[in-house]
Amino acid sequence: MTAGTLRGYRDDGPASRALGRMARGRLAPLPAAVAAAALTGVLLALPPRGGPAPALFAPVIALLLAGPASAHPHDGRLDWLAPPISRGIEYGYLAVLGFAQAVSAPLVYVLIAVLALHHHDIVYRTRQGRRPREWVLRAGLGWEGRMLFAAVAGLSGLLPFAYAALAAYLGVLFGAEGVVAWARGRGSGVMVDLKEEEA
Predict the structure, then answer these.
(1) How is domain 3-198 classified at the CATH fold level?
(2) What pLDDT shows up at residue 174?
(3) For position 17, what pLDDT does the model report?
């Protein structure tokens, strides 16, 4: 697995990529991802004390910690752990925030399922040399954009509507683009060496 492939698995949005360009690839991804996960977990665990829930500020902290590492070559021995940690931060944040703010469980699960299918699609298409187009990834907001969108909706009291809108928007965006890409790929004769995949 190449370093460029690992960076592609991150699903960074415009904000994270901008921070990565400013840091010029100097920040190692694994320590940044671990720190972002730890602080996000702490903020999710803190109870609200008369004001907004501390969890609503977790996306900003996660972005400031993990975003600058987006331009790093991801060539370290354990850097392959950074993308799954980012997935865990995003899924965990959306689940805990949704349940804490009384979003219906099916809606929370649908949103996370849409994201999980999107990330599954990214991994397998990238392995076959057919990475999703950049406009789709930008339109999908990136992990940090989706978390920030949920946080702003939580601050304004519109979280159930935001989860429904986000799930519908991302489902149509990723679903339609994925179906078209896979349908086009069938006629291209792409062959996958399963022994090489297992190695």
Answers:
(1) Four Helix Bundle (Hemerythrin (Met), subunit A) (1.20.120)
(2) 94
(3) 92
What is the rounded average pLDDT of the residues 166-184? 91
Residue in this structure with the two tokens 């086009």, named with its chain if needed: 184
Q: What is the pTM for the complete model shown?
A: 0.87
Listed residue (166, 66, 74) closest to 115, CA to CA: 166
Domain extents in the chain: 3-198
Residue type, 115: L
pLDDT at 189: 39
Q: Phi and psi dihedrals of 130, rounded to 5?
A: -125, 55
